Amino acid sequence: MKSVLSILVAAVLFIGSNALFTVNQWETAVVLRLGEIVKTDVEPGLHFKTPFINNVRKFDARVQTLDAAPERYLTSEKKNLEVDSFVKWRIKDVEKFYTTMNGDNRLAGMRLGQIVKDGLRAEFGNRTVKEVISGERIEIAKKIKDTTANAANEFGIEITDIRIKRIDLPKDVSDSVYRRMEAERNRVAKDLRSKGSEAAEKIRADADRQRVVILAEAYSEAEVLRGKGDAKAAEIYAQAYNKDAEFYSFYHSLNAYQKSFKDKSDVMVVDPKADFFKYFNGAVK
Known about the structure:
The chain is of the alpha+beta class and 285 residues long. Helix content is 55%, strand content 20%. Among the domains are: 2-60, no CATH class; 64-169, Band 7 domain (Tetrahydropterin Synthase, Chain A), CATH 3.30.479; 253-277, no CATH class. A hairpin with a 5-residue loop joins strand 7 (71-74) and strand 8. The relative contact order is 0.07.
């Protein structure tokens, strides 16, 4: 008797657990009967269903982010641009979402990503690189959101926002542009160095010329002053000689003796009767 009762209790509990289900605040759900939808947009809370006949599929109703890998798009000038974007979306109609996407978020992301890529391709194809980079990315994102909203609505999806994070040239193009910029900067630097060297040579040449001119002028002035000094000295010597020629001769002889016998080791071979020793020989009268 007890075993039968235990079996009955266990069966009741099992059936009861299969008859109850909960939906969280951030979820939406559909109730299926043998694979056919019988109820949608089930509100959060505790609910009942027919065991073994009905089953429940729950989906995240919060805003989700689709951040796809960067893609290349052609502009109206046939220039490649690498665009990185993301999409914010949520399930708006759970019945459509389940019917069209079989409730598969991965499939929904793929279809939604393709819709956004087509929109980006169309918008970038109508614009030049300058227009895209100069600040029209917000306008582009708004237009894509408007044009893709209807397509996404067919899948029960609402696009809440589309943003373009980054617009770059492809790496090979960026490298080429960088190399051209580097070559241009090197050319400018080389030109500036050449002009600097030329200016330095001119300054050096002018400094050398000024040096030569200054030295020549100084030498000329020194020669003039020397000539004037020699002339003045000659004039003074002449005046002194005319006043007392004998004394002048005697004075010069003394200076000559002083210079000649300055060092005791000096030796002179001179005739004692030569004019050099006339004042030693008592020639003064």
